[in-house]
Amino acid sequence: MSLLLRVRDLEVAYGAVPAVMGVALELPAGEIRAILGANGAGKSSTIKAILGLVKARGTIELEGRPIHGLATHRIHQHGVAWVPEGRQLFSTLTVHENLEMGAFSRGNGPDFRSRVDQTFEMFPRLRERRSQLAGSLSGGEQQMLAIARALVSEPRLLLMDEPSLGLAPKVVQRLFEQIQEINARGLSILMVEQNARQALKIAHYAYLLEAGRLAAEGSAETLMASEDVQRAYLGG
Which domains are delineated in the chain? Predict the structure, then answer.
């Protein structure tokens, strides 16, 4: 299996305060990998560094090509899409208009309708709500839209930052099923998630961050079986 993403010696700091120190991770094409850890562990900073949203040191490669130092919109054009923490939708625009915003790098030409139809097949509730303002949707519907907005650009790599945040348990379960369905269609996913138990149920591999450093890594099965991980992250 080919390697899609490689991160080495990643360092992020906010002023004099270090947030990420020497983190290394990889994502083979076709896999779901999770970055787990408590608040302040450096999870979101790692994702933002990959996206070019924060200044970082180290090496970040997409299919062997360096993307570190590129502007965020250029990284997006290389096939990296983002589902941000808190959704960050355009609340005063409709569902369909939000999808148009997600497709800006590809344009809304003849194939745009086909891409939108594909997302509506995955999220039929959005088809019903296509003319509704995004700000009036439920939390679960907003998360569907945030994911759909990322998918209409047809990315090769989907970065997800705390997708289950603020959602009811039943909605969370369905959300993770949908993430699996997206991955089954061939999309590689790197996901930051505080809900370690749910994330490990669908991930192939995971990284545990503590205070900005990589504390452990391994297959989801290995980490689920670890007493230390159960005690610290799974309530075991």
Answer: 3-79+155-233 (3.40.50.300)
